[in-house]
Amino acid sequence: MTDRDDFLAWVRTALYDAELALHNGDPATRRALWSRQEPVSVLGAWRNANGQQELDELFGHLGRSFSDCTSYAFELQACDVVGDMAYTSGFEHISASVDGAPRTYTLRATQVYRRETGQWRVVHRHGDTVNE
Amino acid sequence: MNLDQVIEAQREAMQAIATGDPEPTKALYSDADDVTLANPWGPAVRGTVAVREMLDFVGTRFREGVLDGFDQVAVYAGSTIASVLETESWRVKVGGRDDLASFVLRVTCTYRHEGGTWKLVSRHADPINAPRPDGPLQT
Question: What number is the ipTM of this complex?
Answer without folding.
Answer: 0.95
